[in-house]
Amino acid sequence: MQERDRRTIAAAHGVASDDRYGTVTPPLYLSSTFAFSDYATHRGYEYSRTANPSRDLLGETIARLEGAADAIVTASGMAAVNLVLSLARPGDLIVAPHDCYGGTYRLLATRQAEGHFDVVFVDQSDPAALAAALARKPVLVLIETPSNPLMRVVDIAAIATQAKAAGAKVAVDNTFLSPALQRPIALGADFAIHSTTKYLNGHSDIVGGAVACAAATDAERLGFWANITGVTGSPFDAYLTLRGIRTLFARMERQEANAAAVAAFLESHPAVSAVHYPGLSSHPGHALAKRQQDGFGAMLSFDLAGGVPAVQSFVAAVRIFTLAESLGGVESLVAHPATMTHAGMGAEARRAAGIGDGLLRLSVGLEGEGDLIDDLRQALASIDRD
Ligand code: PLP
User: Fold this and answer.
1) In a domain, 1, yes or no
2) How far is the CA of 40 from the centre of ligand 1 (A)?
């Protein structure tokens, strides 16, 4: 059978598949354990840490959306990142972006300090820096594009080709765009990692993660690790995440339209010194994003010319945007990376990555476009009054 349109997979995979009662919505199986039918014989499920029907359906749906052989569903996005790191042994090298999510940076740096493996953080848009790192024969190259929070875009297909030639596996953190707007496996990646906490669930009411694996053998290996270390996701979270995925494409489309309007407004405002949104033609990664992605997404960041005092006035004045970490929900959020999402990175690494103290990150939601812009306008006006 020809693979269905991914919008159909998101909206309907597993719908009306219950052969017991004919439920249209796939049932939620909360049971931690399953009855064996006989001595040493179970009916496909035995214990929910190992496998659970609700979690399996979510994994299957994510795998199909990502064009993967299978997906492992984990208890958080960090558990998903960490699961991929289980491929590395002491002495192995991992290449990671110098401007990755602060939690990923902290995990890699801490595990390196504990002697679990070596890490080199590089600017992957710098061909010489990337080539020098790949010459050291890493086992894994981690990519995050667009990057968090600066929205830098790197060429997945080009990096994957070079990384594979160097003998490395390639993992792309696809959290910021979701499979609705970017499919790393089709571009040559071995893994697409998600914090499902974000766009896949989309409603800011679960914490979860997933690793979609291009090869069934990798999925088996990571599935084994997820089970023995106990990091698989809860069935209830899987149920909610699948419910969120039903509207993924519609949400992404609408939120992107709002983000484009917000970016254009901010770019024209005198209190704003730079706007980082790949949808703007002024963005250095605009052409690449247009080619590599199916949309520009709904995340953006911007620098306030007035630095920390301006940030303080702005975040105190916003009414519709909520000052909070996380992203990808239906509601709009504003975060100050230096003191929130990227605090764990340390000041020096932030400076090296270009994350200034006047930088604010927006996750643009589904509210009315006019209300969002009015809110930003009045919050920016509050800076001038201080
Ligand atoms: N990857 C990216 C790009 C993120 O933004 C985040 C969280 O903000 C994570 C991974 C970690 O996900 P979680 O918070 O679900 O553990």
Assistant:
1) no
2) 40
Q: Which atom of ligand 1 is nearest to the CA of 341?
A: 8
Residues 303 and 365 both lie in one domain: yes
Q: Give me the number of domains the chain comprises.
A: 2
In terms of residue numbers, what domain contains 229?
6-245
Q: What is the pTM of this model?
A: 0.97
| Ligand 1 closest atom vs CA 78 | 16
213 lines ligand 1 (CB under 6 A): no
In CATH, what number is assigned to the domain containing residue 236? Answer: 3.40.640.10
Q: Is 21 noted as a catalytic residue in this protein?
A: no
pLDDT in tens, 222-240: 999 999 999 999 999 999 9
Q: Active site includes 49? A: yes
Taking only the tens place, the pLDDT of each residue in 63-89 is 999 999 999 999 999 999 999 999 999
Examine the residue annotation and report whether 173 is marked as an active-site residue of this protein: yes
Determine the distance separating the centroid of ligand 1 and the alpha carbon of 89, expressed in angstroms: 23
Q: Is 198 a catalytic residue?
A: yes
pLDDT of residue 349: 85
Q: Is the pLDDT of residue 385 over 80?
A: no
The closest residue, in CA terms, to atom 6 on ligand 1 is: 195
Q: Does the Cβ of 209 fall within 6 Å of ligand 1?
A: yes
In tens, the pLDDT along 260-318 reads 999 999 999 999 999 999 999 999 999 999 999 999 999 999 999 999 999 999 999 99
The first and second tokens of residue 362, run together, are 């927006």
